[in-house]
Amino acid sequence: ANALEIENLEKVYGTGIKALRGIDLKVENGDFYALLGPNGAGKSTTIGIITSLVNKTSGKVKVFDYDLDTDLEKAKQQIGLVPQEFNFNPFETVQQIVVNQAGYYGVPRKEALKRSEKYLKQSNLWEKRNERARMLSGGMKRRLMIARALMHEPRLLILDEPTAGVDIELRREMWTFLRELNENGTTIILTTHYLEEAEMLCRHIGIIQSGELIENTSMKNLLSKL
Ligand code: ADP
Ligand code: ADP
């Protein structure tokens, strides 16, 4: 099955703004896909719809064959979302944050504790597990957001502008981390407005502009055209 299938997706906000004008998109299982486009192009709206935070106006969305209209809960289980803004409780500890997240997805507590060790170690945060999240550096907070998104073991990880406003050193560290995750089998979709980021990481790329997908191709193919 494909990780994601989108057919003729449209979004008109209550304000009358047409944010998406018929998007068609497939992302294969195991792919590393970048959705690139300027501010206001429709990237966040697309991600919001896939993660069911935003209602679509029309069109079809399937996540590993689960249709959002008919199998929403199953579809949600397949997806881990890393939003752009830090949205954890800064006064909770690192381990509480990831364990509680697993709880929301119905993972039993014992299993959640086991996974917290795995994913906090993988994110280089295990030593910090008893620290309150507010004490972490910016890079650690970003890794915490990713560890939290992995706790229910989603097959598709979606990151909204994962390195916006991040310095180049930290950006490289994040890239290495994401590449390893993808090599271990997680399908990744990220939005970015850095072509360099898409180029460094991604196998396929979609370029979105004014609510339309104006390019959808392999990174190799795109680079050969520039
Ligand atoms: P939905 O159809 O997904 O429920 P709405 O059209 O109701 O979305 O809008 C959601 C909220 O976001 C509204 O309160 C709206 O006023 C607000 N909003 C309006 N314009 C913007 C914008 N450009 N960016 C972010 N939020 C906006
Ligand atoms: P991007 O993530 O590429 O910057 P968005 O999906 O946030 O683009 O926005 C696409 C268009 O929809 C923009 O014109 C934006 O102002 C508008 N928009 C985004 N969110 C809302 C909202 N909640 N209500 C109304 N308009 C919105």
From TrEMBL:
Keywords: ATP-binding, Nucleotide-binding, Transport. GO terms for molecular function: ATP binding; ATP hydrolysis activity. It comes from the Bacteria. The lineage of its organism: Bacteria, Bacillati, Bacillota, Bacilli, Lactobacillales. This is ABC transporter ATP-binding protein. Residues 4-226 form the ABC transporter domain.
